[in-house]
Specification:
Strand content of chain A: 15-25%
Order of helices and strands of chain A: EHEHEHEHEHEHEHEHEHEHEHH
Structural class of chain A: alpha/beta
Oligomer: homotetramer
Number of domains of chain A: 2
Helix content of chain A: 40-55%
CATH class of the largest domain in chain A: Alpha Beta
Number of helices of chain A: 12
Largest sheet of chain A: 6 strands, parallel
Distance between the termini of chain A: 13 Å
Largest interface: A-B, 27 and 27 residues
CATH topology of the largest domain in chain A: Rossmann fold
Chain lengths: 291, 291, 291, 291
């Protein structure tokens, strides 16, 4: 059991508000700053200054992503801009800074300011847990967009990493016919073990014709013109891969195919669950570092 | 194998259009009538008169529901009104009329006109199959409305009939914690067998506090004021029961609870799948009657 | 909650010994009689006479099956024979007699003696629960007898009653390819809903060739000579149907096919679980009767 | 598609006999040697000499394990001993030698003889596939040994590697309550994602008391005296870990606990499936090496 600590939550979206509530609910002290124009009810009293928020805390938690411009904390619910440099200047060397997607530039700034920092998005367990709301979000989109049930439909998952594994399992649980494209022999063995149908890259053009929906998780353009042309015109494409994505969207449009690029689903479809996973990860980091 | 027949599809929504396509795709002859202002592409040539449509057919298929006023065929995609009486007058005694929810009044009219008719919604297999899109639709709504994932959330299904069984299975497949309220000892045994948690009516007020979402399938007001008051304010209620429904919606509103009455989901969330199930049921009826 | 009562357990096998322990563990008073030569440890003090065992009890529980000859209680662990008539003569009209498979003859005797009796095997919930150890026992036999894994093997379940449903679900859970033969349209709809492959009787000879194991649950000779001849010689047959069974065992032997008639599995493969299900059923009977 | 090749199968058990049949069934030429006293029917003509068997082949496949003494091929079905050195001397440098558990000593001998060799047990996909019959074998043993059903029983899997993952999934599929002990945060996240209950090492003594069966997959003595003492006396232990195993078997015996060390299950419980997985792996090796 991690002993009680003092936390500061600086900026971020609904996830960070919920995170503050969850951490407080476990008996920890929590300061929050950067939510003065949040439209919803915030149960924790907001600190009036950045200094008041940071002072005396053990752990300072920033947003996901940490910043959109490498200069200001990403704080969509705040009326004023919060300089990352100001946060770091107020921190002492015994305080820990945790946020998501801390760019090289920000890491450099942290070093200059002598601030110990951890990027929670680089934690394996966070990526595994985030695959859950990502997969559910993808399923929600498929249900909304398709005039058929996922049950008994032909679904293809491209890639068998964390999202691929989680998504395949949920699709199977709903009753879809699950096909998974993977290359490594070991992945193919796992796919067989879980009872999905494996599709090798060479069989792809053959199999893909009968698919009702394709979920891509590979961050490289797998669904190029040649493959898109073979698709059933009713086939829905949901791309879950980060930039550059896995679909030639222009060609898809030309061919009249519906292709949706769905990014950052956890914060969008299940912010409260996402906040819980952030909490788990933050506590793991603290336990590991012995803060 | 059912041998090739002649079908007429008269009125209805997208489901009946798809039904016509599916029946034609299996090599049968299909006339359609009642879709002259359908906004979408109809692949089958429409008959120019009701008489042309009905004449020479083996089976005449009407909409679900058959009529909204017991007088006219329910034909939302048609510019003119189609009298049920006109349909029946044009039919001979060797032709079979199939539609959904054929009211007593329409049955009476059919008898007067010597028209043999079958209500497809009274077919057990149709009800079982329709539970699939109903359950998926309910899950879609839950995903859209909840800020948490269904995975690992506490879900309660009230009633263990066709929809309850199908929904419990899918929720379990996505990774939700599934509680089912049922009364009959045999149902409780089945719930245990499937690995869900059983909740008896006497335990309901205790268990219900921890639920994140409740799906009602019982057509009687189970979620009355006393029970609604015990709910967590964030708990979502999705009522799938036909009239009178299972929720005191006024009280729910007073208590600030979100309660959604979701009816006729198959035609809304998965019209193409629903059409396929209609087709299966129509063919079963034909096979059974030896038409 | 059922209030505490006095029980007598008379005869039976390990299940009744465990049943006595379970009932006692819930705070009830329990007399047992008919286990004087049980080789294993019996935790409850045995009554020295039948009269002592029965006197003052609310409920007298006999074995499953109640008797093998309609005269004596089925008591394989007892050194002396216990006349059913003696049990009934000692009972008063306020006492309830519960056992399994109470024959017409025994029912008649009970009426003559003014003994109120309930056959627990006629309880729907008992049959549903017993399907669980039956299905597991069938799977165990298949695993022992087959040189291949059930995972990814072709398994056919004949019949979709309580055992068929439970068995199909477990086979699917292990990763087998599950085919189910059923006739009713509604059953076929359920099989589709659960994601198994349906096989109609007319397709049976075609499909059955590729099966690795067949589980029969239909109490009528489905696997007759004509069908047995089409089987793969390595195919294993496990018959779970009560008399007359579903397999022409002589023909199977002639054809060199392995066919196993596996009856009364719950008491054999999982007596402790079976005892728990008996306890649940006994308590349901008591609650229903308001004893 | 791998093009047709010439194979030699030298020694081994039933798996290698089936392997030969499977490879031949796909249109390849297969010589076999080392089965002259096999009690069962061998469908492929046996070569009369080792030289005849090896000469002209592309791939020579030995047994699993390759040898028990580093000198002779493991050939339980052969009347004479086959020297590994003789095999290697007969091979040319264009021929490939594949077997399981090729010891350092044998690797050295191969190098001396200029024989290219691959240990199939070091292939990741083989280990993943072999986890399937291992998990089924473990379940079979549990079913045979326990007087309760796996359904609804408390099962603990120690370790979440390939066997742990596969076993947890199957136990869950049968309806057991699945607890998994793992240490890495990412593994714990996966366990949560799959819906099992996680047990950390610190919680182990608390949780373990309620278990009905424990499956160990960790090759280090986790179940030591201190932990064994906390177990329910009826708890069954099945150890699947290779030497030194994970159980203090002497202490378990002293405490009256049933502990079974179940090794090499694939070849024992499902030799035909195991042969199929060997075939898949052999073809992967060939494809990868471009033989």
């Amino acid at each position: 059991m991690v002993e009680k600590k003092k936390f500061s939550i600086i900026g971020g979206d609904l996830r960070n508000v919920k995170l503050a509530e969850f951490i407080a609910a476990e008996g920890n002290s929590v300061n929050i700053y950067g939510f003065d124009k949040a439209g919803f009810d915030v149960k924790i009293k907001q600190s009036s200054t950045l200094e008041e928020a940071i002072n005396g805390s053990d752990v300072i938690i920033g947003p996901i992503p940490c910043s959109n411009d490498n200069e200001f904390i990403n704080a969509p619910f705040h009326s004023e801009k919060i300089l990352i440099h100001d946060v770091f200047k107020l921190m002492t060397k015994n305080q820990l800074f945790i946020a998501g997607r801390i760019s090289e530039k920000i890491v450099h700034l942290a070093q200059v300011c002598n601030v110990y920092n951890v990027d929670m998005l680089e934690r394996e367990e966070m990526a595994v847990l985030n695959a859950i709301p990502t997969a559910e979000g993808a399923i929600q989109i498929a249900m909304e967009e398709m005039p058929i049930t996922l049950h008994n439909s032909n679904t293809l998952v491209l890639g068998y990493g964390r999202i691929g594994k989680t998504l395949a399992k949920m699709l199977h649980g709903i009753g879809a016919n699950v096909f998974v494209e993977a290359r490594k022999y070991a992945d193919i063995a796992w796919i067989k073990s879980f009872g999905y149908k494996t599709v090798s890259l060479s069989e792809l053009t053959q199999t893909i014709k009968d698919m009702n929906v394709i979920f891509n998780t590979i961050p490289s353009v797998v669904l190029n013109n040649d493959i898109l042309k073979t698709l059933n015109p009713d086939c829905l494409i949901i791309d879950l891969a980060s930039k550059p994505g896995g679909v030639d969207f222009d060609k898809a449009k030309d061919l009249g195919l519906r292709a949706i690029w769905a990014l950052s689903l956890p914060g969008k479809v299940a912010p409260v669950t996402a906040a819980e996973f952030i909490k788990d990860t933050v506590f793991n980091i603290i336990e590991e570092l012995g803060v």
